[in-house]
Design brief:
There is one protein chain. By secondary structure, this protein is an alpha/beta fold. It folds into three domains: 114 residues, TIM Barrel; 99 residues, 2-Layer Sandwich (Dna Ligase, domain 1), CATH 3.30.1490; 124 residues, no CATH class. 34% of the residues lie in helices and 13% in strands. The strands form three sheets. A five-stranded parallel beta sheet has the order 1-2-3-4-8. Helix 2 runs parallel beside helix 3 and helix 3 packs parallel to helix 4. The radius of gyration is 21 Å and the shape is globular.
């Protein structure tokens, strides 16, 4: 794996990322992560969707910092949040953890999407030992069935359950291909309609579609605002490129797919004045470009790529909501990608290209 990583860096990769809430990443130990990250050879950075974002988020972020430090590369947390009722109000503590780490010599940054809900696969609500393809057998085995119920209702060592702290009424089905009518319904509503326990409803949904999506309303707005106000935390969408008429147009995707950057510019910079417009723009342009080694990106200057967005600072705003997510932002007048007009009142050229570290 180190050899593959080294080869990828030779080809222009920006670094290594890990997803430690998901299979197979959740099985990796800290020492194993360090061993693989050593394949960077001091180039690029280590970015991590950390091991926990609720009760274990402080340990998870500390692990991310440790992996980068031991491998001799900068580290980056994707995406900074404090999730679950027990953790609400602790965003400042999490930022303080990063500040103390930097004061001690760590090179660590983080990004954030500006919403109080996350989105992932419903499969994240079951422990790693219960993959969707094995759920029919698990439900048929009394001992395994009881273990699954206990894990989903209370969690188990090394694995946090979504339900106990958040509540199934705050977990919404985002997509379920065999039954699109389930889109937008909460797990609690499905439990009531089917007359089953939450673990059974979740198992049924995953058996029907292993890639069922979910949106969890797990963060507090005050915590989101506390993190947004920090000039050193990047703005990130954590989103796919979708369209109302595309394959996901019928599903309740996260509104961040359409509204992330306009939301920061319009709501948090202009309306709430949590940060200045210039700071907001930097958080989504030059700051991440520099961190990820994308030469010639993120700045308007001679010799740089012509990636430009013309927007009206007095009207730019997101319009996508959780109830109506497929809605484009307002106030964006012109988009230029690599010197080609991509949007000018109507879609234009597609001039995007793969980005490589240090490449001009």
């Amino acid at each position: 794996m180190r050899g593959l990583l080294s080869g990828a860096m030779d080809e222009g990769a920006v670094g290594m990322s890990s997803g430690l809430i998901y299979v197979p990443g959740l099985h990796a130990t800290t020492d194993e992560l360090v061993a693989v990250t050593n394949g960077l050879g001091g180039r690029g950075l280590y970015a991590s969707h950390v091991r926990g974002e609720g009760a274990t988020v402080f340990d998870a972020v500390t692990e991310c910092i440790e992996v980068g430090a031991r491998a001799g590369v900068p580290s980056h947390v994707s995406h900074l949040k404090v999730e679950g009722r027990r953790m609400w109000g602790r965003a400042a503590d999490l930022l303080d953890l990063l500040d103390r780490a930097r004061a001690g010599g760590a090179d660590v940054t983080a990004d954030q999407y500006p919403y109080t809900a996350w989105e992932t696969s419903l499969a994240a609500t079951v422990p790693a030992w219960a993959p969707p393809e094995e759920l029919p057998a698990i439900l048929a085995d009394p001992e395994a069935r009881a273990r699954l119920r206990e894990a989903i209702e209370h969690g188990e060592p090394g694995w946090e359950s979504v339900g106990p702290d958040l509540g199934w009424e705050r977990v919404v089905i985002g997509s379920h291909v065999p039954n699109p009518d389930l889109t937008g319904r909460t797990v609690a509503q499905i439990v009531t309609a089917r007359g089953v326990e939450p673990f059974e409803a979740i198992a049924q949904l995953l058996i029907g579609d292993p890639y069922t999506g979910m949106v969890g309303h797990g963060m507090d707005e005050d915590d989101v605002r506390t993190i947004i106000a920090r000039p050193d935390v990047f703005v990130a969408s954590d989103a796919l490129a979708v369209a109302p008429g595309g394959p996901l147009g019928a599903f309740a995707v996260h509104p961040r797919y359409y509204g992330t950057f306009a939301r920061v510019l319009g709501r948090y910079a202009r309306q709430e004045r949590l940060l200045g417009l210039e700071v907001a723009v930097r958080k989504m342009t030059s700051l991440p470009a520099e961190r990820f080694g994308l030469a010639g990106r993120g700045r308007i200057e001679p010799g740089a790529f012509a990636d430009l967005v013309v927007f009206d600072p007095s009207s730019v705003i997101d319009t996508a909501t959780f109830e109506r997510p497929h809605a484009f932002a307002e106030g964006v007048e012109l988009v230029v990608v690599n010197g080609r007009v991509a949007l000018d009142g109507a879609p234009g050229e597609r001039a995007g290209r793969a980005l490589r570290r240090g490449e001009r």
